[in-house]
Amino acid sequence: MEKTKYLIPILVIAIVAVLSSIFVVDEREKVLVVRFGQIEQTRVEPGIGFKVPLLDEVLRFEDRILSLETPLIEVTPSDDRRLEIDAFVLYRIDDILQYRQAIGTGGERRASEELSGILESQIRAVLGSQGVTSNTILSPERSDLMDQIKTRSDARANALGLEVVDVRLRQT
After folding, report:
1. For residue 140, what are the contacts with CB-CB under 8 A and spacing of at least 6?
2. Residue 83 to residue 137: CA distance in whole angstroms
3. Distance between alpha carbon 20 and the CA centroid of its chain, in Å?
């Protein structure tokens, strides 16, 4: 009877410690395990992972394609007609280490603000460049312009650990 008195609490503590050291990585997410602000491990494959209970924190990031809509952007092409462009971008978190260092604790909201600024500047740069007229923007050549915006935005977004999958101009 005396042994049972000590054995049950020790067994309960051992079970709680084992269960709190296990985490599951879903197929729709990427995970960083952080201990005292230092990254201990990166998990991008789905499955079961292990961490040190009470010391490690599991940070989860989306692995799915995310979308971002921009506010109306005023653009003046080379023919001096003022156009209002409504665009959206599809992106994903490509490198979670770089994303964590660039964005910090701001999370998805700060990332979308940064990406929105990048997208707006690249839309202005491409659509306001020499030789691009309002007729070009409204013609089938529009897809080439969207590809240029995507390529230029992706190059800038890589510094944030993001990958731009697609850029579309919805309404002009």
Report:
1. none
2. 10
3. 28
pTM score > 0.85 for this model? no
For 18, the token pair is 């084992």
The residue assigned the tokens 């977004």 is 157
Q: Which tokens hold the place of 117?
A: 């600024």
User: Looking at the predicted structure, is the pLDDT value of residue 134 above 80?
Assistant: no
Kindly state the average pLDDT of the residues 20-25: 86
C-beta of residue 59 within 8 angstroms of C-beta of residue 107: no
Q: How far apart are CA 114 and CA 119, in angstroms?
A: 9
Tokens standing for residue 121: 């500047």
Alpha helices by DSSP H, the chain = 2-20, 96-103, 107-127, 134-138, 142-157
User: Which region, left, alpha or beta, applies to residue 72 given φ > 0 means left and ψ of -120 to 50 means alpha?
Assistant: beta
